[in-house]
Amino acid sequence: MSTAGPPPPDSPRARGARADGARAGIGPRAAASARRMGGALGRAAGPLRILTPAGRAALVTGAVAALVAATAGWVEAGAIAWCCAVVLLAALVQVAVPSPHAVALHLSNRRVVAGQTAIGEIAVTNRRARRAGAGVIELPIGAGAGQILVPPLAGHETWNEVFSVVTRRRGLIRIGPAHAVRADALGLVRRVSTWDNPETLHVHPRTVRVPFEATGFQLDVEGVVTAKLSSSDVAFHALRDYEPGDDRRHVHWASSARLGRLVVRQFEETRRSHHLLVLDTRSGAWPRDDFETAVSVAASLALADMTRSRTVWLRGRAGWLPTSAPVGLMDALAELEPDDAGADPLADVVRRAVAEHPDLSALTVVVGPDTDDEEAARLLAPAGPDVAAGVLRIRTGAVRRRLSVERGSLVDCPSVEDLPHLLLLAGTAS
Fold it and tell me: What is the DSSP code string of 308-375?
């Protein structure tokens, strides 16, 4: 079996191959040369990255002046070129050695409520054995940045500075990484050392206390209005024989004396302790301020349940939010933003949420200002007859009011501060 070798240089096949290669564009050797040239240019341009816009302007000015002096023989242009060269060289000498400062960040509290001020500390250490001059530390905070002036430090000395972050709105704020900066006096050259230890600040939504245990009204499992819920949200179910480990406070002494053996009360969880919250998170349904109020309202209701050891579920259009612990819930709400995830109508989202939790005892749907009364009433349709249901419509600046609709109540809530009073009017519970 023979193998065909390459065609002779002057054969038609070889000439055709060369023609095809020419039509295809650059050849292999030319491509390799272009890659080498590109790499060389990239290495050559590396030092240019430390030039500021003013430094690049000085470099271009000097190059143009040198070209004019060489071609036209202008002495003035030559002087300008030499001045630019000397100034740039002096600037490069000043920053030839990177900053001796090592930087570490620390936040005293990584979680604050919107409107509060977070306190942090920055520690700057001189890594060298000899004295280091004054320096500048740049600290990115969210979309902005702050500058911290570092005084001269002795060898291996550490200097600490406290900084504050004023929060105005719920969300996540990235702090850092810190930059140790060396620059010349004219601002032509800037050398930056980055310390990759950023911090994330969770800014939780504002909440209000919902004092249902004092003045609120709840519907118990039989639908009877009670003025106060038990702290445990359990109800007496039956008597059973005492077992080792049972709480002696649950012993039913009268029955034990009659039966001649210890019996204890057996409890079961009541349905009134199960609260389903649905928050409309469609981006088109909310002005910005109204959505912030809605998140605060949902957070207030959920925390009211969680602090009383009641079961609460919170769902947005995109899925369920964690409600096993208050911190996890508030962190998730800090990140929550309006979106268009999920194309299903809100009524379908509510219906599926109710189907997933058929043992709920209270349903609250938080909607935007454009939801009309009829649509709000339809949102409560999946709720059973024994479920305390209501729609909270967020309308910033509107008059607070309460309407009775089929299956529950419709409440217009202008602000999170109005929430406790409106819930008392509605007669429904969180």
Answer: TT-EEEEE-SS-EEP-SSHHHHHHHHHH---B----S-HHHHHHHHHHH-TT-SEEEEEE-TT--HHH
